[in-house]
Amino acid sequence: MKIILPSLIIFLLLNLSQSVLAAERDQTLFNQGKTVYEKVCSACHNYLPPPKNAPPMLGVSGHYHQTFTDREQAVSHIANFIQQPTKEKSKLPPMAINTWGLMPPLALPLSAEEVQAVSYWVWEIYNIECAEPTKLFFCQHFQRK
Ligand code: HEC
Predict the structure, then answer these.
(1) CATH code of the domain made up of 27-143
(2) Per residue in 63-83, pLDDT tens?
(3) In the structure, how many helices (H) and strands (E) does the chain have?
(4) Which residues form the Cytochrome c domain (predicted)?
């Protein structure tokens, strides 16, 4: 009993915190964002390395997590950037623009809803893929700083 009860409490708390965290993600918005990524952004951005002709999205997400702690601020910065990219707004290391050039304006403008959804998706992929520190070597790279 002495050991079982605390383990049971820890077990319940872990489950509870996991479901609270999962509930925090707006899955509908996330899925909408993924569709926009597949339709529009994946022309240049692979999800993972090797890069196509732009930095891979999980890396972009990692850099945004190094710069921002607040999801709302990060998402609104991404939304602003993709609608009108400028060098000054960039949160990637300078080598990104040096290597690939500044992201060009999107060929077809997205609706406000699509912009919000895809920006949300960019932020959340890091949370999903890098939830466990040892999951991907790629994620550890961003945690070192
Ligand atoms: C025509 C190619 C192209 C397309 C299409 C494209 N991007 Fe990019 N994107 C780039 C390049 C090149 C960079 C790296 C240089 C830079 O940061 O501007 C970049 C950088 C970014 C960054 C990092 C900005 C920063 O802080 O520097 C984000 C975020 C981003 N893209 C999101 C998107 C999203 C979301 C879409 C789809 C809606 C998209 N991109 C479509 C080429 C593209």
Answers:
(1) 1.10.760.10
(2) 999 999 999 999 999 999 999
(3) 7, 0
(4) 28-126
The pLDDT tens digits for 17-32 are: 554 555 589 999 999 9
User: In the prediction, which pLDDT does 141 show?
Assistant: 77
CA of 145 to the centre of ligand 1 (A): 23
| Torsion sign over Cα 54, 124, 140, 77 | positive
Which residue's C-alpha comes closest to atom 2 of ligand 1?
44
Peptide bond into 55 cis (omega under 30): no
CB within 6 Å of ligand 1 — which residues?
A: 36, 40-41, 43-45, 54-55, 60, 78, 81-82, 85, 90-92, 96-97, 100-104, 106, 118, 122
Q: What is the DSSP letter of 104?
A: P
0.90 exceeded by the pTM?
Answer: no
Give 84's contacts (C-beta < 8 A, 6+ positions apart): 105
- Beta-carbon count within 10 A of 127 CB: 14
Domain definitions of the chain by residue range: 27-143
Average predicted confidence (pLDDT) for the chain: 88
Q: How confident is the model at residue 15 (pLDDT cuts 50, 70, 90)?
A: low
